[in-house]
Target: Phytanoyl-CoA dioxygenase
Amino acid sequence: MTSILTKLKTVAKQVLRPEQKAKYITEFAYDSLPWIDKSDADIDAFVKQFPAAKELPYDLGEKLLFWRENGYVILGQAIPTEWLDQLWREIEELIEHHEKYQTQVRIDLPEYQANPVQPVKDVPKSVLNGPFLKFNDFHDNSVIGKKIMLHKNIVTFLEAVFGDKVIAMQSLLFKYGSQQPTHQDFAYVVSEIPSHLAAAWIALEDVHIDSGPLSYYPGSHKIKKFDFGNGIFFNGKSTLNPNDFAKYLDAACQRAGLKKKTLLIKKGEVLIWHAALAHGGEEIRNPAQTRKSYVCHYSSEKAYKHHRQSPTTEPVRRTMNGADVFVNPTMPDQEDIFDQGKMM
Model:
């Protein structure tokens, strides 16, 4: 965390005038914003000079206008379902033979509170198959995980949003709904330029109302940022916590007249959202109902130059559709060990 914060201070010095520096801890610096978030953004002009716009199965100009106003877009049937089935078969293999693998998981259960992140090999199969668990950065291990993460339908849209090459930062895989309180991603997932952050939520199965679906507030990317007591990022020096964050966001969205939406999309559809879109996981009404999903976070080339596990070394890159994802420098022997996706 210290190294990332040091980088943030360096970026702030580069993009801010002296009189603006104090504001940086409470809002994104205006000069650092992606072009589309600035007041003079001309979407029509941008689309006309963006070569890939004509190759997309959706109207890029329409999607960018919707993004600017609402802070998200939904791409219908964006990912081949056979790719998603392959990804989940690999997760099932990971669970069934977990003692063979090093993939990290986060477990949000009371008995794991002291050590919530562990290698999958050390976690019982019953826990791996249950709720309150997420598989961290499985794309490191999986070729098809990378192909989905860097699918052209996603990365081309984000390239337009950032006005820059896309870099995939991390991924999370869920079997059940997260039931996570309302939050905004930038507070926890820190890019070197915090405003250069976006996420994709990819449905690995049809989403049901009883499965703890994702919910979000359209337009909430424009509300005032929450102050954790030491700025807009949650860390060890924060005096307020994620529950305070959630209460603030729910109240602020209600005051602004923003209506919460529930995401009930089909397998292969994708929600892409802005760094500051307020969202969370609803309560699981049916404990037997899964909500298999794949969440990927992205930044831009100018804003994410190094792997978060090794912020001072040049990363090893995997490139697809003009975007990059970095090889995990702490587990190079685990890279692409699930390689069935090479033939897809």
Observations:
- Residues 1-24 have pLDDT under 50 and may be disordered.
